[in-house]
Specification:
By secondary structure, the chain is of the alpha+beta class. Helices cover 19% and strands 47% of the residues.
């Protein structure tokens, strides 16, 4: 089962952008993700369409099963 951490950021133009991280560590907490997001925002690391991120809107882990066909 593949897992992806999705971090949804609000931009200065009020649109959103999503950062996807493959295979996040087991036991990852919301506090850890929020701390990392705050650091990325402070360093203006997250940008889209010329606009920087202002806040972490949502964060979640998406899991996906792959079933091979016979």
């Amino acid at each position: 089962m593949a897992k992806t951490l999705k971090m949804v950021f609000t931009l200065k133009d009020l649109k959103t952008t999503t950062l996807s991280v493959a295979d996040p560590k087991d036991g990852l907490t919301k506090a850890e993700v929020t701390s990392a997001a705050d650091e990325m925002i402070a360093k203006d690391f997250i940008r889209s369409g010329g606009f920087g991120a202002t806040a972490l809107k949502d964060a979640y882990i998406q899991s996906e099963d792959r079933i091979e066909l016979a």
